[in-house]
Amino acid sequence: MKIEYAVKRILRKHGKIDFLSRLNPDSSIMDAGCGNNSPFITKQILPDCHYTGLDVGDYNQTKPLSADRYIVTTAEEFPAEIARFPEAFDAVISNHNLEHCDDRKATLEAMLNALKVGGKLFLSFPCEQSVSFPRRGGTLNYYDDPTHKFSPPNFQETLGAIEKRGFEIEYSEKNYSPKMLRFVGWVVEMFSRARNKCMTGTWAYYGFESIIIARKIKQVPSGGGAPPPAS
């Protein structure tokens, strides 16, 4: 593993890089919302994985596209495209994707159904408190990003929806704030404010992210009355 990823894994335990690093090398992975060079990064960490990337556009894909399967669809068809792969993957990643979805409930349902029994979900999204955070370049207040829909996903309702679909929660943090990054964020906060820009550690200092990691322990049919993942 490259040094930069090893450092990120240390600084962001339970973050996306750490999650990927704990998967089997040949895992089948769906990345729902795979912008920002996610196919390239995933293949750097797990070169032998089978990677399916799904998005509604080519967002910041500046590195060589490394996906085994790359699907570009519309926002309206996004949940249905995920639903084409029932019980197909060892892992599903949704890294700051849910807040951009028109139909969060259908998207979450489809992602949960796409996992094999024993498969794992990585889900991250802005915390509910971010609606009152300072406005800042790089997105600190939820509404800094005009592509964010509605209000932030409701953390407890999202946890409940996942558990009711036969999942065990392995890790959950409503305001993800790893200690070393939080300290860095505290050190640079004055400069971040002055430059009106998020810097390394800013998100951790404020606890901007919510993260949920869950493992599928049994297959439960959809439509079982689970609450919606957002309010």
Mass-distribution shape:
globular
The helicity comes to: 25-40%
The overall average pLDDT, rounded, is: 94
CA distance, first residue to last residue? 39 Å
**Tally of contiguous helical segments:** 8
- Structural class by SSE content: alpha/beta
CATH superfamily of one domain: Vaccinia Virus protein VP39
Features:
single chain; 231 residues; Rossmann fold; 8 helices
Walkthrough of the structure:
It is globular and about 50 Å long. The chain is α/β, with parallel strands linked by helices and 231 residues long. The longest helix is centred in the last third of the chain and has 17 residues, at 179-195. Residues 224-228 have low confidence and may be disordered. Helix 3 links the parallel strand 1 (28-32) and strand 2. It has a seven-stranded mixed beta sheet with strand order 3-2-1-4-5-7-6, sandwiched between helices. It contains eight helices and seven strands; from the N terminus they run H-H-E-H-E-E-H-E-H-E-H-E-H-H-E. It has a domain at 3-128 and 155-177 and 208-216: Rossmann fold (3-Layer(aba) Sandwich).
In short:
The protein has helices at residues 3-11, 16-21, 38-45, 78-82, 104-113, 155-163, 179-195, 202-206; strands spanning 28-32, 50-55, 69-72, 89-95, 115-126, 167-176, 209-216.
Q: How do the strands and helices of this protein lay out in sequence?
A:
Elements: H1 3-11, H2 16-21, E1 28-32, H3 38-45, E2 50-55, E3 69-72, H4 78-82, E4 89-95, H5 104-113, E5 115-126, H6 155-163, E6 167-176, H7 179-195, H8 202-206, E7 209-216
